């Protein structure tokens, strides 16, 4: 097997806003429930929309939508997915958490499209994992950090591929600065 395999994909980063501060005030026995209420539902949503959950790290879920040759339906599915994540967090996940005596849950979402590589990590005879590495993974994480509670922020590469019915609902934000490089980002408000 090659050391890497290129892949085009849409990457979704979904995380709970302020979770570090929130869980620092929770009794230890409530912390797993707090994370599970969010994570279990987000994993189901990504899967229901045809995506794959790549990783769950603390309060963050990373979902991917690999792009086949017929890419338009996948782009639309990924956008419907993040819209649903935003709405299900507000109207279902957070009320469920509050009904269990837990704090309100808000999420923020960063999404972009690009090429990455599936890379096998490990040393001779010891396979650790297959990781997805690349610019799109780093950029999507930085885009997520720019989102406010309840917001979906997308990168310019995904924006270029959006159906016109979604583009009319995009508001350009201040560009993401990475060193001397500027990358356009947009709030998707639909």
CATH topology: Alpha-Beta Plaits
Count every helix, treating DSSP H or I runs of 4 or more residues as helices: 6
The string of secondary-structure elements, in order, is EHHEEHEEHEHHEEEE
Strand content: 35-45%
Identify the CATH class.
Answer: Alpha Beta
How far apart lie the N and C ends? 43 Å
Secondary structure: elements and pairs:
Elements: E1 4-16, H1 19-24, H2 31-48, E2 52-57, E3 60-66, H3 72-99, E4 107-123, E5 126-133, H4 135-146, E6 152-155, H5 156-161, H6 164-167, E7 170-172, E8 176-178, E9 181-183, E10 185-188
Parallel strand pairs: 4-6
Antiparallel strand pairs: 1-3, 1-4, 2-3, 4-5, 6-10, 7-10, 8-9
Helix pairs in contact: 2-3
Walk me through what this model shows.
The protein is of the alpha+beta class and 190 residues long. It has a single domain, classed as Nucleotide cyclase, GGDEF domain (Alpha-Beta Plaits, 2-Layer Sandwich), CATH 3.30.70. Helix content is 39%, strand content 36%. Strands 1, 2, 3, 4, 5, 6, 7 and 10 form an eight-stranded mixed sheet that branches. It has a two-stranded antiparallel sheet with strand order 8-9. Strand 2 and strand 3 form a beta hairpin. Helix 2 (31-48) runs antiparallel to helix 3 (72-99). The protein is globular and about 45 Å long. 33% of the residues are buried. The mean pLDDT is 92.
